[in-house]
Amino acid sequence: xxxxxxPDHPSIRAALVQVQGGGLPVVQIVTRxxxxxxxxxxxxxxAGRMAGLLMARMAEGRGPVVALCHSQIYQVHRDRIRGFSxxxxxxxxxxxxxxxxxxxxxxxxxAGDLVLQALRRWPDLAGxxxxxxxxxAVAAVxxxxxxxxxxxxxxLTERSACALRQGIxxxxxxQVPEAQARRAMDLMLARLGLLPGPVANPPIRFVTIT
Length: 210
Known about the structure:
Helix content: 40-55%
Oligomer: single chain
Structural class: alpha/beta
Distance between the termini: 38 Å
Order of helices and strands: EHEEHEHEHEHEHEHE
């Protein structure tokens, strides 16, 4: 059996197709590359919509909103951005226009530079949604700002928890990796005949933390 994390890369997708064809059990975590293999993860479109809902209802400023993601490579980020955009388009207030997606490739220096550029371009920037990594770099830039945008990010880490406590981050959406690991192991054990019967596999519930 094979458990693989974030397999969203062309060479890995090709390898997965090959091993799946040979009958090797595969479980994918975080993002899905092969639709025939089991997938364990949150509903990322729903997480993006939740970020949009919270931005629309809780952001106190009036001004543009931007989002950060790795690139257009990862399905997980595309789904989150699509959910965020769809919610704001359908239900967002007119005073919070979603103006741009910034591709930071989860690189700290690039993410910080892009946020600085956005703040210079839009001094009234009201909101930031980071669908990927480099939360610490974004928080470091915002820490120096007198007026901070409403900032939503993913994954509860020591850095994001610190930013929450300091009031720099407003909300963290966490995908509960412990639950994903447990589900992945149960699915693999069932596929190998070491657990009786099929294992139910609905989306992992994400957690909203303020």
